[in-house]
Amino acid sequence: MINNIKGTKDILPNESQLWQYVENKIHNFFKLFGYSEIRTPKFEDTKLFNRSIGEDTDIVSKEMYSWIDQGGNNLTLKPEVTASVVRSIIQHKLNYSNKINKLYYIDSLFRRERPQKGRFRQFEQFGIEAIGSDYPEQDVEVISMAYYFYKEMGLDNLKLKINSIGSKETRIKYKKALHEFLFDEQDKLTDTSKKRLISNPMRILDTKVDFEIEIIKDAPHIIDYLSPDEKEHFQKILNYLDQLNINYVIDNMLVRGLDYYSKTVFEIQSDLLGAQSALCGGGRYDYLIEELGGKPTPAIGFAAGIERLIIALNDNFKIPEKHSDIYIVSIGEKAIEKSIEIAKNLRCRKNLSVITDNLRQSMKSQMKEANKLNVQQTIIIGEEEIKNNKLIIKDMKSGDQEEIDCDKVETYFK
Ligand code: HAM
Fold first, then answer.
1. What is the pLDDT of residues 69-99, one digit of tens each?
2. Strands 390-395 and 401-405: what pairing?
3. Domain spans, the chain
4. Residues within 6 Å of ligand 1 by CB
5. In this structure, which topology does domain 13-166+226-314 adopt according to CATH?
6. Closest Cα to atom 14 of ligand 1
7. Contact yes or no for 54/60 (Cβ under 8 A)
8. Local confidence band at 315 (pLDDT 50, 70, 90 cut-offs)
9. Fewer beta carbons below 10 Å: N end or C end of the chain?
10. In this structure, which residue's CA is closest to atom 9 in ligand 1?
């Protein structure tokens, strides 16, 4: 027997209804804010991710599914969407044709992480990217969209963590201070952090190792190194969040696990998730478009795991059940022929969902199945009905039956 690959999952019919419900909500919700859908390929040139996410990050250094194809191209299954969106914006010059591009997506992503609750090797994300504005109101629009979306889905106890990691210049100053702070502690660091102390000490703030968390507790805060403009930008965002009554905590250790961020970074967490507590994360990436060869354009976005949303919604979340409208019970060859024709007409012309029996079951078994499927009505066509060119319509709730002429069936269902 061949099973699915570790870290992937099947979404079976009993779960797919909830997935469809969530996906519809995403489409409708983001359109309310004027965002349009973008779809990018499932794989890209590996260079795109190396250059945007950063060689030092966990994603690029150990989690990407990359391979050389038959033509010698180095390709990677997309581990995140932002880099692809930026590539697409540059390639199609969308930042020339539109002053601002407001985009959303739903996509499948691939990271070779250690699977656990809420962490998969293939997972689904939805997210948005607002490309073109460097004003704080754009930051607040993006952050509040994430926050309101979860509220709309009925989630409470959301924890919004926010930080500013400033511009490149700010980070040069800060990294120096952080390096000085960590230098004396370097013997206690893990081998990965020792390497990062040289290449990018801010990555160490992202550590999940307990004794390292203890060490960095007293590290300097980047917020204290922001320029006056960056401080003002950050303060404006906090003011707008206050105005919207959105609670937040400033988290000085929040730097996010991807290298392209500048200024604002944020995450929304839920205590319903366990260890993988981040529902979503995002931030500004004002340099990325330029770094990938486009004209300098400020941008901000976030992305969110759909599996984690589904876990947070949990088993108690009930979506309105949608059942089929009609089940056609047919007995005998001629009745089967008739049922195929009636089903087609009711589906195409009356937009009704119709199920036919394709197992040639007994009348009793077909009625039992119709009951189980919770349809509203059954159409019964037996040998007698075929002879008389009639059929029976049974209302499954009241049990009432009515005999009508076969050719009146479409007009019967208004
Ligand atoms: P990220 O923090 O890597 O950011 O991922 C965003 C969200 O995707 C996480 O908060 C989590 O809900 C979900 N996620 C990540 N990895 C996994 C996994 N292995 N299994 C299940 N869910 C997972 C980004 O991807 C950035 N592109 C976000 C962004 C958009 N920044 C600016 N624009």
1. 999 999 999 999 999 999 999 999 999 999 9
2. antiparallel
3. 13-166+226-314, 170-223, 326-412
4. 80-82, 111, 113, 118-120, 123, 125, 127, 129, 257-258, 278-283, 285, 301-305, 307-308
5. BirA Bifunctional Protein; domain 2 (3.30.930)
6. 305
7. yes
8. low
9. N
10. 280
